[in-house]
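Reviewer comment 2.1 asked that we show a complete input and output for one of the modelled complexes. We chose the 5-O-phosphono-beta-D-ribofuranosylamine case, as it is the one discussed in the main text.
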Amino acid sequence: MSRTRVAVLVSGRGSNLQALVDVLGPADAPGLIAIVISNRADAGALDRARAAGIPTAVIAADGQDAEQILAVLRQHEVRLVVLAGYLKKVPDAVVSAYRGRMLNIHPALLPAFGGAGMYGHHVHEAVLASGARLTGVTVHLVDEQFDHGTIVAQWPVPVRPGDTADSLAARVLAVEHRLLPAVVRAACRQLADGDHVRPLSGASDAFVLASCPEPTFADALVPA
Ligand code: GRF
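Response of the prediction step:
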């Protein structure tokens, strides 16, 4: 079975990109990262990509970027797009071309604590301010609205007494680094013989729940 060609879009340090590089690097992985695209030339994620020998492109998110992004995705024969800390809105034309084949990771349990302005520490501060006892990680399909498309998988992280935005961010990030690779591997397998990514269930053999830390529930909060 041929490996699904993946593009990863980034804006920052790229720790989630690194988790994907680690899992998709081996030759027997179900996918490979064909290109890493950043809207910022100084993103640390680009160094991680170069260190792994992965091609990179910098495309400024200036409202004129749709054609450039599509051209790069075509050039690298990309089937699956993963937003891993990409802080700009993906142009509608790109969303449309990759509908059902574009994933985003968000550091909370959507639909709570999502939307414009909800990124980085803003998310964790809002969770703490709300008094919520549970946060987590969501991987979802991308549509035209921020943090809005079909949820593919989620994993809970409890909020502990005394948590700060930093301590919560660190525990959520550790889960991101487990959940995103698990979902992307499953999505690569799905796209080998399908045309869109389907929500995962705990029963899926591709989705190893036990590999995620802090499971306080018998099952993940994923659609059946
Ligand atoms: C992560 O928390 C991700 O959920 C959010 O942006 C952050 C990116 O971190 N979308 P990194 O660049 O992968 O380290």
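The first helix runs from residue 15 to 24. We note this here for comparison with the apo prediction described in Section 3.2.
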